[in-house]
Design brief:
Layout lengths: L23 H16 L1 H10 L29 H20 L7 H28 L21 H28 L6 H29 L19
Length: 237
């Protein structure tokens, strides 16, 4: 692997703190679903799209410690206020990264960046409004920790490749956060449940698209490993 590979360049690689990555088993389950949707044809894609977003992902275990997750602790049931605070922070990081795609040389990436900024900015505005309406106390501090590397120093293929690798993982975390809210017993507002299902549906589709681009442009595939910093599963293996 070359010294300028954005996945291994120390100047641009994200910090590998324990909370920055999903657990091996949990991430493997999500990867399997997404790769099937990306590579398995219309029938498999339709099956994934029709899957109940509140259903646990295959291989997910209860009682996982907070050190195995990103954004939000993966152990305890998640309430609405915690979900809103952490998902806003998660979306804001995605928006910042997606804006860097204005410098991409690929029109597909520039269009994708504009869509991420537009969709997630609207969702951030809605989530902030709900937080103000539903919770009167002082705002809960977010426990979210940034996941993505600094893209401002990258351009050309290095920008696109780093964005796709990091945003794929970033989207997977959002899907898991939304699924945990839907699978728990603390969801009180139907409109928040609808948003969580939208996040699962839309970001799962975007993960599949990013996988296809990564494979077509850079020869990177989840099934072949190497899309996560530190190894196929991103844990330093």
């Amino acid at each position: 692997m070359s010294a300028t590979d954005p996945a291994t360049d120390p100047a641009t690689s994200p910090t590998t703190s324990p909370r920055r990555h999903l657990s091996r088993g949990l991430l493997a389950a999500v990867v399997a679903l997404v790769v099937l949707a990306a590579l398995g044809g219309a029938a498999v894609g339709a099956a994934l799209a029709s899957r109940d977003p509140s259903a646990p992902v295959a291989g997910q275990r209860s009682g996982m410690g907070s050190g195995t997750g990103t954004g939000m602790g993966m152990g305890a049931d998640v309430g609405e206020e915690r979900f809103l605070v952490d998902m806003v922070a998660h979306h804001e990081e995605a928006i910042t990264a997606a804006r860097e795609l204005r410098r991409s040389e690929r029109p597909e990436m520039r269009a994708f960046g504009r869509r991420v900024v537009a969709d997630q900015s609207a969702q951030v505005e809605q989530m902030r409004a709900w937080s103000s309406q539903w919770f009167d106390e002082a705002p809960t501090a977010s426990t979210y920790e940034p996941m993505m590397r600094d893209l401002t120093r990258l351009d050309g293929d290095r920008l696109d490749e780093a964005f796709l690798a990091d945003m794929t993982q970033h989207h997977m975390t959002a899907v898991m956060m939304a699924r945990r809210l839907l699978a728990g017993d603390r969801l009180e507002h139907a409109e928040l449940g609808s948003l969580a299902r939208t996040i699962v549906r839309d970001q799962t589709a975007e993960i599949a698209q990013m996988h296809r681009w990564s494979r077509a442009w850079f020869g990177r595939s989840w099934t072949e490993g190497g899309m996560m910093p530190g190894g196929p599963m991103g844990d330093g293996s």
